[in-house]
Design brief:
Elements: H1 17-24, H2 34-39, H3 43-53, H4 56-59, H5 65-93, H6 99-104, H7 107-115, E1 122-124, H8 127-140, H9 156-183, H10 195-212, H11 214-218, H12 230-240, H13 247-269, H14 280-295, H15 297-301, H16 324-353, H17 359-375, E2 382-384, H18 385-393, H19 400-416, H20 425-434, H21 437-440, H22 445-452, H23 454-492, E3 496-501, E4 508-510, E5 523-528, H24 537-547, H25 552-584, H26 590-593, H27 597-608, H28 614-629, E6 650-654, H29 663-678, E7 682-686, H30 690-698, E8 711-712, H31 715-724
Length: 739
Amino acid sequence: MELRRRDYKVERPLLNQEQLEELGRWGTATGTPQWRTWLQCSHARARALLLQHLPVLVWLPRYPVREWLLGDLLSGLSVAIMQLPQGLAYALLAGLPPVFGLYSSFYPVFIYFLFGTSRHISVGTFAVMSVMVGSVTESLAPDEAFLQASNSTVDEAARDAARVQLASTLSVLVGLFQVGLGLVHFGFVVTYLSEPLVRGYTTAASVQVFVSQLKYVFGLHLSSTSGPLSLIYTVVEVCQKLPQSVIGTVVTALVAGVALVLVKLLNDKLQRYLPLPLPGELFTLIGATGISYGVGLKHRFGVDVVGYIPAGLAPPVAPSPQLFAELVGKAFTIAVVGFAIAISLGKIFALRHGYRVDSNQELVALGLSNLIGGIFQCFPVSCSMSRSLVQESTGGNTQVAGAVSSLFILIIIVKLGELFQDLPKAVLAATIIVNLKGMLKQFTDICSLWKANRVDLLIWLVTFVATILLNLDLGLAVAVVFSLLLLVVRMQLPHYSVLGQVPDTDIYRDVAEFSEAREVPGVKVFRSSATMCFANAELYSDALKQRCGVDVDHLISQKKKLLRKQELKLKRMQKEKLKKQTAASTCTSASNVNTSDGDIESNNVEGSKAKQASAEGKLEDTAAHGQEDGKAPDLLTLKALGLSQPDFHSLVLDLGALSFVDTVCLKSLKNIFRDFREIEVEVYMAACHTPVVTQLEAGQFFDASITKQHLFASVHDAVIFALQHSRSNQVSSVLVTKL
């Protein structure tokens, strides 16, 4: 859009902070404290809390049945068709029997339908969450712990029971963390997980998922490894055992993978012609199960299959408190990662469709989904990117689509689940690997971040490498700590600039970046791009003194040395004068005793310091007069002391970037005022936000020497005031250093 040139003129008086407050009638905002609102008890308050924490009561009564019901039904059916194979596959990824993936696709989805605020995300099993759960179950219940003494084979029933108990207890802990954080409005914690961090983490997790499925693709039996470098050990072991691969399993995985890829390519080609995408995963699962049952893949070719799938729902089971101590750290990590994935995807859909997602309520909804799901033997869940996109693209408008998909999964659990007993695990592994395409494409972030922001690229790479090498829990901790340290470093290294006036405007910009911006003669305007606090206050002061082009500390030191030297000379002259007065008192008349102080000092200087320069003698004479009269004369300046003066008389600090001040910031600002006044430069501040002014008052920053008249509404106000009160126009005496 082309900007037409239009001049505008504003006439107003110069405004410092005192005048601005008087003109705008500034006063502190009054209102009921937040904690009092929380403690209020009334019918309206109870109703508001109910509607806040049970959002389905808000939107379901207003649900437009005619407009949205058909789309939600079709969307729910499409999501359920995807949910079935993914539930079975991701349970395998979590180290659990596949039926528990179906449980995790039913209970949490229905709970989120009641408590969630996003209309489009599909809650349920997700690859990243499943691989995190799998790392826990396989490390705390490894195959080696369930070897039978008789034939050295693994007791799969006992192992699976132990892992199910671990996963369900983990889900309860994850739910407790999420609900607790949501109730105390701790949803902002996800802001410390930046987008590059989350994308780098999910990319590394997808690599973990890919490697974890290799044993099912090749039909290998690998030893359980966990902790740092476990991924490297697994890859090495897979390479060593490749000659032991089961050919039937490899062929099954390849055929299933090719079929899935072809169906996805066909969906992409025919997207505009198909009302619903072709359910490639469902077709592959049904076809593979039929072929496995008809050909006998397990008995004839040694292909491992899913096995027994019980019909019906499992009864609720209480979590095991004895496992809490072992799982609490991993549960917190999974809780934060699951919420970060869900809220980031939820906000994308909310912006696209024009509604709001409550991050704290999302924490509560996900927490209740995991908490109640854990009681019914589910493992921790989040939202799936692929299913959420399908739910949106097939006409889903609300979580009615999620409720429909969960009811469809319920029918499969009760009646149809046992039909998939002959499904090869290699097909599930192929389904997982093909569905990793979206996350593995995030490797292209490296090129885009290299061009856009290399600091974000560094966060992405550190997160990825740390997660690959240190596993998912330690990798996330390292990534968060690194990003926070990087934030601190960036706060300590902001962009400092000296500002100049853009011609014929009241706009001030960095003279190094804007060639037409010119410094105002006699006035330095300094700005920092970051707020000043304890972490960078000293750096701010150093950068200010450096950018001003004056060695302030050296100049003050020289001034103090000269004044100290002058004071010593003065004391010596006073002693000599006292001695001469005593000696002359016996032989001189009273009129000689009453000789003026100036004459005595002139005689003393001429008698004892005949070789001194006349300018130095005059300076000492003036200093003596000032000392005896108890005054600070105007002649006691840098120029009179023989020191070079700064080429500016005023310094304006643009504090528009300040968002808060702490005690260190207050002290640094006071030191800046003191130091620059020592070298005869007056300091002004400009563009402070009202909360910062309030904090300055609370910190007792303003006093007799620094008043609100030194704080201006804008940089231009401060510059004009400084020009009107330049060094040549000053009437007040110069501040003298106190020794």
